Structures are given as structure tokens and as C-alpha cells.
Amino acid sequence: MLGELHITTPPPHGGHLVDRVIRDPDEGKKMADGCSAVYDIKPTLYKDMPIRNVYREIMSICYGFFSPVEGSMRSEELERVLNERRLSSGWVFPYPMLFDISKEDLKKLGVVPGDRLLLRLKGQPFAVLDIEEIYNIDPLDVTTRTFGTVEKNPEVVVVPFDEKHPGYTIYKYFNTEVLAGKYTIINEPKLKPPFDRFWFPPAKSREEYKRRGWTTVINHQTRNVPHVGHEALMRNAAYIGDTKPCDGIQVNAIIGAKRIGDYPDEAIVESHEMVNLAGYVGPKRHLATMCLWDMRYGNPIESLLHGIIRQNMGCTHHMFGRDHAALGPYYDMYAAQTLWEKGIPSFGFPKPPYAVEKGLYMRPQNMAEFWYCPHCAEVTYSESCTHKGEFQRFSGSFIRSLLAEGIFPPSVIMRREVYQIVVKWWKQFGYPFNNKKYLTEREKELEVDLPKMEVPKFK
Fold first, then answer.
1. What is the pLDDT of residue 1?
2. pLDDT confidence of residue 381
3. Of 190, 214, 243, the domain-final residue
4. Residue 451 falls within a domain, yes or no?
5. C-beta of residue 137 within 8 angstroms of C-beta of residue 100
6. Percent of the chain residues topping a pLDDT of 90
């Protein structure tokens, strides 16, 4: 029944997990040899700084994180996503997924619908794109319709978007030409340390839950190093209504280009792992994982993608807190919770995403916030502690300011073991947070290496 809660492993979004990865090198080589042209993947730049790399979208699509999406969207599907947040098949999906190139590159390639394009990464064959359609877009129009406006989406959009918003900037700086069609990875990449041990694509994730005996799993979305407030959020959100606690708590870190001032990805994944290695959350109930995606900071829109990713991984529940996946004043701080509690009609949701046709099965666990109460002398929940005049918020910017000065935050704010992970990567990179040098070097090295494969000769 529509909207009915099933406390069991949910089906993949769209009914099946996408798996478009060729694991036989000989078969991959044959597909490469059948290509009409070759294109070297390069990052989207803003003021000479990388803000997106389409390879991460290709990885997440081909390994099933974004099921049922299988490639770069056709023009008809793009319009439906922008107008209704739905794919051509009717399944809910929030963001345009596009393989965009410049007019100059399109002219050089000389490809047409029906051609197969070889995509090369770090000098090696990586994937192919079977071209079904070639069309052009107005990047500003796509950007505005993706994130919404104050006039059209007054329920949740507070101020107009601008180039200070990373997601807005990503779409605004899209190229104008789109190659639409399905991706297939033909030369399976190898995740590099430390990311390799956090790589749990949906099929592997579901196998891991089964191995652990987990049937109810709640996800904690993160792009940050954890503080003690995050621990409290995970522990308390894991109690789902009046039922027993969730069997498992999954942390899923978004790995990819982020804003300057966020933590390095290496520190994010290892510090969340340390929360269970150090025993602050029981290792048997906690699993740190990752997904490749360049953050769009889209609050309610991003929360839909997060729900799809985690349902595909096998999660039954997802925690949503204040300012979920947000940056700056653009959205109301509880916009994501509004979507999951009652819907946002102007975004195409008269009901919550799990209560509409071809929506999500996964259920939200909307949370207020945890803070430190000096009167209670402990971390308390904002909806239960009455000493609201005395509370001290867990401020990410305040914690980062302490770290930038080399000051160890008080243990009531951050665990010493977590702080040591931050310092470990600080020593390696020379700075505790993302800066232009880190982001530029990361886009050269990426999170993966590719086996050597002979490249076909093209005219």
C-alpha cells in the first residue's frame, strides 16, 4: 500500500539496482575498440578552481547509487526532472544528470546519435557513452529551475541564489552542449587508500547488511568531521518511533569537490571510522561508507538524492537535521524536514516523498538539534531540555576556528581520537581544511586509479 511502512530491507529505487560495470578486461577492450571518438574527462572550473568532475557521477550511476538512472539525461527527461522532479519513467529524481561539453569539443569529436564515445580518465580508458541524443541547454535556466526561486518556491527558498552557492555555481558553469545516453564503465577503477575501505556500492552494501543481520538501518549523511553532537544525533535518531533501535547506523560521507573551508575527504572518512574504533558508537552497529558526488548543497532537493542513494544501499531510515545539506541563507533551515513531513507543492510534492506514486520507500527521522547544556552538564536534545537560555550550540565554524589555531577543542565538543585524525591529514596537506591547492591536487590524483588498457587509435 502506498505510504505503508515496511520494516525490512527496501527495494532499490525504481525496482532494480543499476549495474553498468564491465569486469572482464577483454570485453571492456572490445567495447573501447568499437568507439567512434575519444574524450578526456576534465573537471568543471570556477575561477580556476575545480568544482565538479563528471567521473564521480558516472561512477555513482554505473554502480547503482543513483538507480534507476543509467546515464546522461535526454532533453525530454531533463525537462521532466526540472518541472516535476521525476524521470521519464515517473520515478522521483531531483537533479539533472548531464554529460556536458563545449561547442568546440563537440565539433572536434564529430559524433552523432548512434555513436559510442570512449571516455578517458587519467590517461586511461574509463567508460563509454552510447549517444542517443545531442542537444543544447541554457545553463542559467537549468540552474535556476534546479534550485528554485523566492517567487516560485516561497515555502522554502528564502533569498535568491548567487555564485557564493557552490551548487548554483556548478550548474551555471555547465557547458552548453549535452551528450545524452547510457554510461558503461569498461575499465573498473581501483579505489585508493583510505577510500578503498569505505567503498560499499549498493550491491555490496546490501550484502554487508545481510552478513551483519541488519534489517533496519538508519543513515547519517555527512560532509564533516564528527563532533560529539553528531554522536548524540546518531545514537538518538536510531530509535525509530516505538520500535526497537535500528540494527545498524550507517554513515555515508559525500566524497568529491566541496567548498573551501570544508574538511579534506580523507579526514572525514577516517574520523567517522574512528568514532567506532574508539568505542564511542558500538562497532557492531556502526558502518562508515562513502559515495562519490560533488556536493550541490541543495537542502530539500539534495535530501531527495540522499534518500535515493541510501535506499539503494538498503537503508530503511534516514535522519534529517537542521540545515540538512545546506550552505548559507538560501533555504529555510528546516526545508528538508518540511519536504519529508508534508511535502513542498512548488517542487512537485503535495505529499512527502514516501507518500507519492513512484516515490521512496525509505522513511525519514526528522531531528531538531543537540547542544551542550551547562545546567544539565551534558549533551541534551533541544526538544527535551528546558534550559534553553543556557545552551551552547555545536558550531562547526567555531570548531574549525579552534582547529585553525591549533587548539584542541574541549572533549565535550570533539573526541581526542577524532582530533588526532584531523591533525594527521593536516600534517600531510599542510592545512586542516580544503583550500585551492588541496582541491586542485585532488582533481589531478582523484580517488581512483585505473588499470592500463591499450587505447584505440582514432583519426
1. 31
2. 60
3. 190
4. no
5. yes
6. 75
Phi-psi region at 204: left, alpha or beta (left = phi > 0; alpha = psi -120 to 50)? alpha
For 164-200, what is each residue's pLDDT tens digit? 999 999 999 999 999 999 999 999 999 999 999 999 9
In a domain, 339, yes or no: yes
Structural domain count of the chain? 2
| Nearest one of 323, 305, 309 to 200, comparing CA atoms | 309
CB 36 within 8 A of CB 111: yes
Distance of CA 182 to the CA centre of its chain: 20
Say whether both 75 and 30 belong to one domain: yes
Domain that holds residue 320: 195-443
Please indicate, yes or no, if residue 279 is contained in any of the structural domains.
yes
CATH number at residue 166: 3.10.400.10
For residues 179 and 203, state if they share a domain.
Answer: no
Residue 223 lies in a domain: yes
Q: What span, in angstroms and rounded, lies between the C-alpha atoms of 210 and 358? A: 26
40 compared with 322, residue with greater pLDDT: 40
User: Under 8 Å CB-to-CB from 111, ≥6 apart: which residues?
Assistant: 36, 37, 117, 131, 134, 179
Is the pTM of the predicted complex or chain greater than 0.85?
yes
Looking at the predicted structure, is the pLDDT value of residue 3 above 50?
Answer: no
- The partner residues of 253 in beta bridges, in order of sequence, read 222, 290
